[in-house]
Amino acid sequence: MWTLPPLFGWSSYDVEGIASNCALAWHREDWNSRSYHLSLFVWCFLLPLALILWSYGKLIYVLKQVAKSGIAQSNSTQRAETQVTKTVVIMILAFLLSWVPYAAFALTRVVNPEVIMGPQIQSIPMYMAKTGTVYNPVIYICLNKQYREKVVTSLACLQKCSISKYSRSRSLATALKRLQGNQVSCNTNRVAPEGGLNISKNLLLPNINYCSDKSFSE
Fold first, then answer.
1. Could you say which of 92, 111, 143 is where a domain stops?
2. Could you give the dihedral angle defined by the CA atoms of residues 98, 99, 103 and 104, in that order, rounded to the nearest 10 degrees?
3. Which end of the chain is more exposed for a tag (fewer CB within 10 A), N or C?
4. How many Cβ atoms sit within 10 Å of the Cβ of residue 37?
């Protein structure tokens, strides 16, 4: 939703960093652009960060309360709680790692547009923000046994399907090649040889029924 306003006049897009793709025109100093950048900073960074901290903080709080309630817990339950806490902390750190540099860069350009940064320096936080979409799946796969098992099963199934498809394609190609060879042999057998020699087609196509069993002679 927040990608649409620049298309209708609220701020604009421009080539970013090393000119590999487009992004918001952070260098523009007019209030129209700066107001959009500030709104984007609040709604797309501060608010999601606050929701993440509140949600995961609430989850950890509930787990701690259950632990303090005196209810006997098995070792597997305690390990699960520890695993959840570790996953939450790592996910928050991954979010901060991917988006804090970009948010700091954007806020710096809004507050002080005269700050000069080279294209290479500008590209670093932009690419870090874009890689944020792959962090969560990697974290779940590394820290959660069930996710790892599902991924391994899916990859094995995909590999099996690929091998089966390749085998079918290769078998079809081999069959077509044999059919073409049989047709050439049939056509060669139908030509009357010079010098009165008799050539039996059975020498060329012993297993093909659609070739005549008669030999041709001059």
1. 143
2. -40
3. N
4. 19
Query: What does each of the 218 residues of the chain score in pLDDT, given as a tens digit?
Result: 777 888 888 887 877 766 677 777 777 777 888 888 888 888 888 998 899 889 888 888 887 777 676 555 566 667 777 788 888 888 888 889 988 988 888 888 778 777 777 777 878 888 888 888 888 888 888 888 888 888 888 887 877 776 666 566 666 667 666 666 665 555 555 544 444 444 444 444 444 444 444 444 44
Question: Three-state DSSP class for 179?
Answer: helix
> Has this prediction a pTM greater than 0.90?
no
* Nearby residues of 152 by Cβ (< 8 Å), 6 or more positions away: none
Residue 24 phi, psi (nearest 5): -65, 150
Yes or no: say if 43 and 106 are a contact pair by the CB < 8 Å rule: no
Residues 199/186, Cβ–Cβ less than 8 Å = no
**Is 197 a member of any domain?**
yes
